[in-house]
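Quick check before the chapter quiz. The format below is the same one you will see on the exam, so make sure you can read both the input and the output lines.
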Amino acid sequence: DRVFVAGLSAGGAMAATLAATHPSLFAAVGIHSGLPHGIAHDMPSAFGAMRGQGGRAPRRTEGSVRMIIFHGAADATVHPSNAEALVAAAGPALRGTSRREKGRSAGGRAYSRNLVEAADGTPLVESWRIEGAGHAWSGGRPEGSYTDPAGPDASAEMVRFFLQPRG
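Here is the expected output.
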């Protein structure tokens, strides 16, 4: 009931796969700059999907896990279209009210945030597109590798999303 999984890049793809294949185990998933579950079946199709060149349609699952997604609009490693594919793969979770917000992080990065909520207010899917951000953890410390301190803070936002009360 309170188990969460999150990852960046290949770790994000693994988080998506874990949530898709074990929906009863996870309360929510955080995917940063990752691929949807089932979009690739071998190395060439994985590299194609990373470049935003098709691949298999992402698998939809009836037991969708609540999902928060982050992706940099300038990501040259994993194409930003994969964030849209992750949202599309959420399938049944998209039966809710949608809204879009725009803002700017404390570090100056513009972002758009799309939210889908159930009728009772439970957050189902939240997708962040960060303008100017590449293939890096948004809001990470500058000492780390694959981090972008300009934000927004993906870690804080994922924890907020994970811990939001349901219904």
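If your answer matched, good. The mean pLDDT is 91.
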